[in-house]
């Protein structure tokens, strides 16, 4: 039986100072900080999650903020561009908002869609695209109201060192459908109403270098723990070297590096971000997994103080 992921679960990137990260993604883009925790493999570093009001899969961008770390280089073996989807007719609002915060941007067209292209403060490439698909984000922050707010991911652009092999993984393993080719890009789609569009650059370029301003991995959706284990076996049977299941507290995760050198994760939709906080209080305080709770006092002294603040 062929498996099909519904789409993107989350995308995780490396950035610089955590307060600059929060000011941009919450203060400017209006996303909700749905979870502040630590990197489970490096607890001296934050792991910050932003998304829609409910923190639903397909809306979640996560960050490892390393203040004063070296700058990376976006290139092959990485997600090159992260695309967010906004309601139809709202690109003029976002043009004005980017101008208000003196964020340089440019307009472009790809596959018949108008997109706004700009960078975050640490060099990540970002796009906004307007589509009818996807429910409104009911979160309001500053001047960003549900009528104009980012709904979640539009998708991502993949830069592969071996595009033909990555294309095979997208279609034959992850179950996406090839829908169009335009210039240097081929578009693939999944079934979800957000996080469902992946553009693969078909011409390889310079290899990327991990560091600040680069995406660490892209995660795909599994329905639940049973489906997740099926995915693990399925990926393995397709010749990929997949990890054991890792408990990330808010989802279970497996990882494999596809032949184009992009790190793929498959993550479960449940349990989500409200199981250790209420839906109303998500993101308001530092949450630690049980193995680090005994070190809370030390970690709180080590981590840079942060706050979500309105910039309007």
UniProtKB/TrEMBL annotation:
Entry superkingdom: Bacteria
InterPro entries found in the cross-reference section: cNMP-bd_dom, Extradiol_RC_dioxygenase, Glyas_Bleomycin-R_OHBP_Dase, Glyas_Fos-R_dOase_dom, VOC_core
Organism, scientific name: Lysinibacillus agricola
Domain VOC residue range list: 7-131, 152-269
Domain named Cyclic nucleotide-binding: residues: 74-121
The entry's keywords: Dioxygenase, Oxidoreductase
MF term (GO), any: dioxygenase activity
A Pfam family hit: Glyoxalase
SUPFAM superfamilies to which the protein is assigned, alphabetical: Glyoxalase/Bleomycin resistance protein/Dihydroxybiphenyl dioxygenase
Protein name from the UniProt record: Ring-cleaving dioxygenase
């Amino acid at each position: 039986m062929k498996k099909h992921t519904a789409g993107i679960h989350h995308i995780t990137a490396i950035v610089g100072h955590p307060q600059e990260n929060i000011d941009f993604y919450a203060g400017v883009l209006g996303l909700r900080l749905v979870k502040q925790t630590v990197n489970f493999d490096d607890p001296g570093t934050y792991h910050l999650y932003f998304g829609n009001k409910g923190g639903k899969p397909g809306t979640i961008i996560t960050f490892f903020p390393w203040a004063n770390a070296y700058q990376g280089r976006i290139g092959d073996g990485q997600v090159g561009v992260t695309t967010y989807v906004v309601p139809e007719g709202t690109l003029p609002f976002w043009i004005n908002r980017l101008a208000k915060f003196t964020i340089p941007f440019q307009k472009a067209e790809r596959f018949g869609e108008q997109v706004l292209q700009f960078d975050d403060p640490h060099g990540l490439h970002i796009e906004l695209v307007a589509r009818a698909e996807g429910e409104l984000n009911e979160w309001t922050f500053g001047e960003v109201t549900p009528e104009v707010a980012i709904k979640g991911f539009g998708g991502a652009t993949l830069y592969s060192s071996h595009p033909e092999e990555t294309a095979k993984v997208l279609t034959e393993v992850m179950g996406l459908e090839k829908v169009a080719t335009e210039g240097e890009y081929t578009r693939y789609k999944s079934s979800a109403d957000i996080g469902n569009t992946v553009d693969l650059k078909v011409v390889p370029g310079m290899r990327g270098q991990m560091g600040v301003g680069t995406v660490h991995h892209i995660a795909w959706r599994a329905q639940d723990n049973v489906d997740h284990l099926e995915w693990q076996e399925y990926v393995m049977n397709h010749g990929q070297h997949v990890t054991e299941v890792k408990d990330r507290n808010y989802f279970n995760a497996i990882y494999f590096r596809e032949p184009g050198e992009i790190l793929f994760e498959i993550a479960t939709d449940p349990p989500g971000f409200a199981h250790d906080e209420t839906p109303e209080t998500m993101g308001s305080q530092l949450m630690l997994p049980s193995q680090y709770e005994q070190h809370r006092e030390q970690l709180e002294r080590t981590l840079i103080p942060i706050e979500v603040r309105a910039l309007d």
